[in-house]
Amino acid sequence: MKCLGLAGVLSIFVLSVWIGDLSAQGYCELRHSGLNQNRKIIGAVSTECDDGEGWWPGGHSLPFGNWGVTSNVGHKIDGHQFNGWCRNRYLCDSNGDCAWHCQDSWYEWNSCTTGSAWLSGNCDFYNYNHCTQQITTRGVNTHGSTATYVYVSCPYDSNDDGICDSGGCASVSSFYSGSNWMTLYELDEWDDDEVVQSLYFPSVTMSLNCDAMSCNSVTSSWLWPTSYDTPISPALVDARLAVRVNSGRFADRDGNCAMRAAVDERYDCY
Fold first, then answer.
1. Range from 22-31, 155-164, 196-205, 249-258 that averages highest in pLDDT
2. How large is the angle between the packed helices 256-263 and 5-20, nearest 10 degrees?
3. d(CA 215, CA 245)
4. 237 Cβ partners below 8 Å, 6+ apart?
5. Does position 110 have pLDDT exceeding 90, yes or no?
6. By the 8 A CB rule, do 244 and 141 touch?
């Protein structure tokens, strides 16, 4: 009888464990986003008020500003995360001073509603509820995107037709969002970004339609805020949030499924 030696015994042991293990060998990558709409400013905001430094440098672009969002799916950017309504407008304040406002390529909010020159009632600086509040004009925004990786077994052809019909993303039947929240910031290029308020929303679980290689897009219903922070009260901002799974795709982890396919043609189907 031929002696294999310790190295040979270990090689056979590792190979037998690998071939016999049908647990997680790849992953299903779920790309998902946070959406918001029906954005309203319903309370007093003072994040873009005069700090005595003027407009330049280090001061504020009174009274308008672009807002960013840090959330459970991303970080704030100077972009279109929480669009307002003002863009390239010639407006006159309550003192009769007129100027061009909102010229930074974004749709901005009046972010100093406590300033004496921009109090509610002036329809140049408020566009909702008899010129006492503000409302978006830009529909649905995406405030962040990220990915969740679900470890799954390798795609498998159970009926020898050459098509993967189990394993992979087909093992994933639902998506749980976890806590949904948005913290809104008034953004300043030359100063610290200032928190406006944090909004918290319910978590959601969504059923997914996946085959072995991919998942279809699915979007939750629109959610209402359940609580606020910084401040806890009163509510300064109102908005609706939804969760969207944009796509799912199977990806081989470290080539393990390709190795399995090399020894079993039932895994050679993708």
1. 196-205
2. 100
3. 9
4. 39, 40, 41, 42, 43, 184, 196, 197, 199
5. yes
6. no
Handedness of CA 141, 240, 207, 26 (dihedral sign): positive
Q: Are 27 and 96 within 8 A, CB to CB?
A: no
Spatial distance between the Cα atoms of 133 and 128, rounded to a whole number of angstroms: 5
Maximum Cα interatomic distance, the chain, rounded to a whole number of Å? 103
Is residue 231 reached through a cis peptide bond, with omega within 30 degrees of 0 on the bond before it? yes
At 13 the three-state DSSP class reads helix
Cα 82 from Cα 40, distance rounded (Å): 10
Q: Which two tokens stand for residue 99?
A: 């100027």
Give the start-end residues of each E strand in 47-203. Answer: 64-65, 67-71, 89-92, 98-101, 109-110, 134-135, 141-152, 174-176, 180-186, 194-201
Length of the chain: 270
